[in-house]
Amino acid sequence: MSQGSQSVKSPKQIVEIQYNGLKANADLFTIAYREADTMQFVLSQPMFIPYSENPYFNLSAEPMKAEFKEPVMVHPSEPKIDSIKVESTKNTSRVNRFFTNRVEMLLESLQQRPLEMGTHNFLWSVLMRIYPYLNQQTAIQENELTQQLEQIILSRYQGDKSQVSALHRSIAKAKEHQLNLVELINQTAKVKI
Predict the structure, then answer these.
(1) How far apart are CA 52 and CA 189, in angstroms?
(2) CA-to-CA distance for 45 and 23, rounded, in angstroms?
(3) What is the pLDDT of residues 124-165, one digit of tens each?
(4) Is the Cα torsion angle 17, 19, 25, 31 positive or negative in sign?
(5) Measuring CA to CA, how many Å separate 68 from each of 18, 29, 65, 94, 140?
(6) Which of 73, 86, 102, 181 could form an S-S bond across to 133 if both were Cys, CB 3.0 to 4.6 Å?
(7) Helix, coil or strand: residue 70
(8) Statement: the pTM of the whole predicted model exceeds 0.85
(9) Has residue 59 got a pLDDT over 80?
(10) Whole-angstrom Cα distance, residue 64 to residue 180?
């Protein structure tokens, strides 16, 4: 580091520089193929003196003539938090509960609706209140819902398979629409998502 670029460092910064310097130069402390224990190079313990009843100190030690490597400073980047995923995870159980209750209520009303009261129009309105939201929840799978609807249609039309084919065409048309389930919940919710 050049003289002009040096700045006054706090004691904490100095200790951190020494700590990183020891870690970066651990290979210099290898003696007789025994690597230095880098776990000793922690901020709370920059110098380690083991206990011994007969300690040895080399009073005529000479400083090492080694080129120390400059430690590479890696600054952690700020974590990226996807707020949309956090919000969706946080509200998943509420969305699932709303959707499940909605589906149960609509299927029950479809089963109990008299045949002479415009079943086809009502079926279309049921499909449009379920299928555009289906991919925004995790409580009910599409095949499970479709099977329930098939059973209702078969029981209402005495097993007429042509009505099931018509149901599948209507489902395909309803799935073309994509509506926001959270917006739907927020239209009537006291506490918005």
Answers:
(1) 73
(2) 13
(3) 888 988 988 888 888 889 999 999 999 988 888 888 888 888
(4) positive
(5) 11, 11, 9, 59, 63
(6) 181
(7) coil
(8) no
(9) yes
(10) 70
